[in-house]
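Page 37, continued from 36.
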């Protein structure tokens, strides 16, 4: 049975294998090859796409204990967009991956840049406290030689000027 998705041609969906697949396998080791993209039908429009992943987990590389976070990914697409189920499975692949919080958000951003080549992207990890401290790394990127390069610099300089109230997440 061939997959049918309203408004998308077979050519536009070339390379999309996870969406609608009932035999999903959840990888538990970091694997960027899971990511899939599709054509942006509106590449001349500048607009944000935002993903919130409130169940992100990775492992502390020193203790092996789990770290929990909400990962926020916002991007302005260029020609390609990331397919959401592949993104979910990719983020799940960090489950047994040992890396510091700062490394996780930078790796996520770089992997998405590599596969999508967005105009702009930012990744923010809001990790739950361990040992009485939370770590909330933020990174961003604007395509070189475009207005988005300046946008990235300005957003980085203005990032988190008004931190949230303490809520123990």
């Amino acid at each position: 049975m061939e997959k049918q998705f309203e408004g998308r041609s077979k050519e536009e969906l070339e390379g999309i294998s996870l969406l609608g697949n009932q035999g999903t396998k959840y990888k538990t080791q970091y694997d960027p090859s899971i990511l899939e993209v599709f054509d942006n039908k509106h590449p001349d429009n500048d607009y944000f796409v935002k993903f919130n992943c409130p169940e992100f987990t990775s492992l502390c590389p020193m203790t092996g204990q789990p770290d929990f976070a909400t990962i926020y990914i916002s991007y302005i697409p260029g020609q390609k967009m990331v397919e959401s189920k592949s993104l979910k499975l990719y983020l799940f692949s960090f489950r047994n991956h040992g890396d510091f919080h700062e490394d996780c958000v930078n790796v996520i951003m770089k992997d998405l840049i590599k596969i999508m080549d967005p105009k702009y992207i930012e990744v923010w990890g809001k990790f739950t406290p361990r040992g009485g401290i939370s770590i909330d790394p933020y990174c961003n990127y604007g395509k070189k030689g475009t207005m988005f390069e300046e946008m990235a610099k300005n957003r980085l300089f203005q990032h988190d000027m008004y931190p949230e109230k303490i809520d123990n997440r």
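The radius of gyration is 17 Å. Flag for discussion at group meeting. The first strand starts at residue 37 and ends at 39.
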